[in-house]
């Protein structure tokens, strides 16, 4: 993709400043799932607003978001408040509202990933995946699935065949999904698109034979490094289902084999 071309993702998450701490945006219907705007896409919109508040701290380091109600396509009001601005990081509160009612409320710490030390010590290992061309393209889903989740057409998403059995009625029962993801227009990943990728795969509960969409209650995302160009590989899993809720953990790895983002969300257990 030409560097001078504005990506679809940048256009869809763009915000307009209304005041020192207020913005508006127009939520795009192409990023919906199950009738509501996707939570990961909303993180991208929030990230754009926080980046505009303080250009010297352009990257989300951590954001913890409570989803208070469904967001719909169309206008949204964004308000921010400064909690602390330091030399290398800044912390903010942020709310998105529609028709006077908040739909998400979040706290975030922003920084500059390019200025962080490059030392890495980790015991985490990337998912072992077949190459993308040997994985199952989500774009091949049924028309009914695409209609329910137009979001999936915003990505080139490929699922590991070992975790894609749910698509033919044969979930593995392990509570694991893994695969590859990139933006559909070929734009290389950046910290804001990583926020969106963390909540863009089908719910991990699909691998347990529960096929309804699972609304997120809270999601905490950590962005750990600037991603290298190319595909992002992902692993999602759940280990505890209780009280009508479950956690979903997600890890994102870049083409250089580095863990670049992590998240945990608490979601309501889908019925059926």
UniProtKB/TrEMBL annotation:
Q: Name one Pfam family in it.
A: 4HBT_3
* Coiled coil regions in record: none
Q: Where is the Acyl-CoA thioesterase-like N-terminal HotDog domain?
A: 28-111
Q: InterPro entries attached here?
A: ACOT8-like_C, Acyl-CoA_hotdog, HotDog_dom_sf, Sec_Metab_Biosynth-Assoc, TesB_ACOT8-like_N
Residue span, Acyl-CoA thioesterase-like C-terminal domain: 132-267
Q: What is this protein called?
A: Thioesterase family protein
């Amino acid at each position: 993709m030409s560097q001078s071309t504005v990506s679809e993702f940048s256009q869809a998450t763009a915000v307009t400043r209304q005041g020192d701490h207020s913005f508006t945006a127009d939520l795009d219907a192409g990023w919906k799932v199950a009738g509501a705007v996707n939570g990961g896409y909303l993180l991208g919109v929030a990230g754009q607003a926080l980046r505009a508040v303080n250009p010297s701290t352009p990257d989300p380091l951590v954001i913890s978001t409570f989803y208070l109600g469904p967001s719909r396509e169309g206008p949204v009001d964004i308000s921010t408040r400064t909690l602390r601005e330091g030399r290398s990081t800044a912390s903010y509160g942020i709310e998105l509202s529609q028709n006077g009612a908040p739909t998400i409320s979040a706290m975030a710490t922003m920084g500059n990933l390019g200025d962080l030390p490059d030392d890495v010590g980790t015991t985490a290992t990337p998912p072992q995946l077949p190459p993308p061309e040997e994985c199952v393209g989500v774009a091949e889903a049924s028309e009914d699935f695409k209609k329910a989740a137009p979001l999936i057409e915003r990505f080139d998403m490929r699922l590991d065949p070992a975790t894609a059995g749910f698509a033919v009625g044969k979930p593995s029962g392990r509570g694991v999904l893994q695969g590859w993801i990139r933006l559909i227009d070929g734009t290389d990943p950046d910290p804001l698109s990583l926020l969106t990728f963390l909540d863009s795969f089908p719910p991990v509960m699909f691998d347990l034979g529960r096929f309804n969409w699972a609304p997120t209650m809270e999601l905490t995302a950590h962005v750990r490094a600037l991603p290298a160009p190319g595909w992002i590989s992902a692993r999602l899993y759940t280990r505890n289902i209780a009280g009508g809720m479950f956690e979903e953990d997600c890890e994102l790895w870049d083409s250089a084999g580095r863990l670049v983002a992590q998240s945990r969300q608490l979601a309501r257990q889908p019925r059926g």
